[in-house]
């Protein structure tokens, strides 16, 4: 390789590295800015209670996919560590739902805050492939209301997707907010 070609290649490589570093910096800045905007919407999460009753739905192992602002399945919450995917165990108690995440703080969803437990095709920008007979069973989505009043969806994919039916079967008393919402709608009409 002659000297002018080598110099041109090195200059091109340097410009390419600078361009990639600049793009990564812009993406990180956007992530932080989004987090600052969401801090007031999210507020503080409910604290984990000291004691809980026996589980009403046995622990389910799987993957925590993140949280999104409801009803936008693609608007990821990036405040704190809510935006990071991680292995998790999901357990339902009479007092609420516990999401114990690997390498992150647990998330406690009080029973009174739960609005709906349903299955979806995807959440937080992730679409999970599913069977043709059950097109919307890729993600277990829990819609709940934060103390700040904002509703979010928490996404969880069980290692064994047949476990999703156990969570949906707990549905009659599982979502007190739905019954309250229905009665409010009937009162308005």
From TrEMBL:
Q: Show the ranges annotated as biased composition (Basic and acidic residues).
A: 154-166
Q: Where is this region: Disordered?
A: 153-189
Give the keywords, sorted: Membrane, Transmembrane, Transmembrane helix
* Positions with biased composition (Low complexity): 169-179
Which domain of life does the protein's organism represent? Bacteria
Q: Which residues form the PH domain?
A: 42-169
InterPro entries listed in its UniProt record: PH_bac (IPR057446)
Question: Which residue ranges does UniProt annotate as crossing the membrane?
Answer: 6-24
Name-wise, this protein is Transporter
Q: Which organism is it from?
A: Mycolicibacter kumamotonensis
The beginning of the lineage is: Bacteria, Bacillati, Actinomycetota, Actinomycetes, Mycobacteriales
